[in-house]
């Protein structure tokens, strides 16, 4: 199939920036951070997080929502939004065996596992819930969404740390390109704001130690000192162009290219020359069949950590040149780990759709080591024909995605 054979017909977003695409996009353009002191983290080394606002399990309409871990609840709500946006209905498939679900996650049902482990220690093995594994396993968001939708094609749950959601979209493209599926519901989900995860990241000094929540997440800033942990889900409906055309569906854009690589360097530190990041971006360009000069904007992984931001920006400059417009939306949402790649891919598509580059929130004093054209202070209006989204994860796992209108 040709590189433009995969189209996005639906997007669902459940993030700290809001529930739904429009609410998310307005908050991202405004550049208003969602970070706040979190009562659930009281007494821990870091007490700042980015929560999904006004999330209520009643939104799901489930008979027993308590049987779903929070990350799977996010995934289901985002999947339903994406389906509605695409003009599709669950279980109303022409051929359910050609409908796949791919939901990536870095942590899975960590809240369930932590709670049940605490119960094991305090009350004993007989008190552990029989639902511990059906709620806590890493593949359960994908499994639950497939059951909900009646999708009988491949059901996959990639785990590539903070690149998981982007990996899911790339795998979806592969399934459609190979002719295995007509429709793939793909994305990422995460609910990691738990004592264990926050404490573990804090011990690694990966989280921002800034006591001011309003400025804690500040990608590319000279004073950045770590990321702010977040939660949520982003889900796409992707279809073959022929399938979308046959049913008269609107296309929100095309997924042109997918590139993946490994740093093969260190479990937490990026390759110092950005080798893996560069390979992923170059791979995505090759898959898309385009040259680097054709790309108009890069949505960076941009974590607000000292290591990533410098290395990534240098890799971007090597591939695209120092004049490439770059921004990170993590100043608004924080870092959603395994969900980040799908959510930021959605923001990249929205930038293409609206001809607006989102600003990097809280970027006041750009790090002089960063030489790309950082979008800051306000959205930048300009025509965009092609954009690339980066996602990198612990273990040195890198994914880049290329989108076009």
TrEMBL record:
Pathway: Lipid metabolism; fatty acid biosynthesis. Transmembrane segments: none annotated. GO terms for molecular function: 3-oxoacyl-[acyl-carrier-protein] synthase activity. Keywords: Acyltransferase, Fatty acid biosynthesis, Fatty acid metabolism, Lipid biosynthesis, Lipid metabolism, Transferase. Belongs to the thiolase-like superfamily. Beta-ketoacyl-ACP synthases family. It is an enzyme of class 2 (transferase). The keyword Membrane does not apply. InterPro entries: 3-oxoacyl-ACP_synth-2, Beta-ketoacyl_synthase, Ketoacyl_synth_AS, Ketoacyl_synth_C, Ketoacyl_synth_N, PKS_Beta-ketoAc_synthase_dom, Thiolase-like. It catalyses: a fatty acyl-[ACP] + malonyl-[ACP] + H(+) = a 3-oxoacyl-[ACP] + holo-[ACP] + CO2; (9Z)-hexadecenoyl-[ACP] + malonyl-[ACP] + H(+) = 3-oxo-(11Z)-octadecenoyl-[ACP] + holo-[ACP] + CO2. Its EC number is 2.3.1.179. It comes from the Bacteria. The keyword Secreted does not apply. CDD domains: KAS_I_II (cd00834). This is 3-oxoacyl-[acyl-carrier-protein] synthase 2. GO terms for biological process: fatty acid elongation. The active site is at 162 (for beta-ketoacyl synthase activity). Residues 3-405 form the Ketosynthase family 3 (KS3) domain. Involved in the type II fatty acid elongation cycle. Catalyzes the elongation of a wide range of acyl-ACP by the addition of two carbons from malonyl-ACP to an acyl acceptor. Can efficiently catalyze the conversion of palmitoleoyl-ACP (cis-hexadec-9-enoyl-ACP) to cis-vaccenoyl-ACP (cis-octadec-11-enoyl-ACP), an essential step in the thermal regulation of fatty acid composition.
């Amino acid at each position: 199939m040709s590189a433009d054979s995969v189209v996005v017909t639906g997007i669902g977003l459940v993030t700290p920036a809001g529930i739904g695409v429009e609410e998310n996009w307005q908050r991202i353009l405004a550049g208003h951070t969602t970070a706040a002191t979190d009562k659930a983290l009281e007494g821990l080394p870091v007490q700042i997080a980015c929560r999904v606002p006004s999330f209520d399990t009643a939104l799901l309409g489930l008979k027993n929502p308590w049987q779903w871990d929070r990350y799977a609840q996010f995934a289901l709500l985002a999947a339903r939004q994406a389906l509605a946006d695409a003009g599709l209905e669950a279980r109303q498939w022409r051929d359910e065996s050609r409908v796949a679900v791919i939901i990536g996650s870095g942590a899975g049902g960590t809240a369930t596992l932590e709670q049940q482990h605490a119960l094991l220690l305090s009350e004993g093995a007989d008190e552990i819930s029989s639902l511990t594994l059906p709620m806590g396993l890493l593949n359960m968001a994908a499994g639950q969404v497939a059951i909900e939708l009646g999708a009988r094609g491949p059901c996959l749950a990639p785990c590539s740390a903070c690149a998981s959601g982007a990996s899911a979209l790339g795998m979806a493209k592969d399934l459609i390109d190979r002719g295995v599926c007509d429709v793939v519901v793909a994305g990422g989900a995460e609910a990691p704001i738990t004592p264990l995860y926050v404490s573990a990241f804090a011990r690694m000094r990966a989280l921002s130690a800034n006591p001011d929540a309003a400025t804690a997440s500040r990608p590319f800033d000279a004073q950045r000192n770590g990321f702010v942990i977040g939660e949520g889900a982003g889900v796409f409906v992707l279809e073959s162009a022929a399938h979308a055309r046959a049913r008269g569906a609107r296309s929100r854009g095309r997924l042109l290219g997918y590139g993946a690589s490994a740093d093969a360097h260190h479990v937490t530190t990026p390759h110092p020359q950005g080798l893996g990041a560069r390979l992923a971006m170059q791979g995505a360009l090759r898959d898309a069949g385009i040259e680097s000069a054709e790309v108009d904007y890069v949505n960076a992984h941009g974590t607000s950590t000292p290591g990533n931001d410098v290395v990534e920006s240098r890799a971007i400059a090597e591939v695209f040149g120092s004049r490439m417009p770059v921004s990170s939306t993590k100043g608004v949402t924080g870092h959603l780990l395994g969900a980040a790649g799908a959510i930021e891919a959605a923001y990249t598509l929205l930038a293409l759709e609206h001809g607006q580059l989102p600003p990097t929130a809280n970027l006041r004093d750009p790090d002089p080591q960063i030489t790309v054209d950082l979008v800051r202070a306000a959205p930048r209006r300009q025509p965009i024909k092609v954009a690339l989204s980066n996602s990198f994860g612990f273990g040195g796992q890198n994914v880049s995605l290329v989108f076009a209108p």
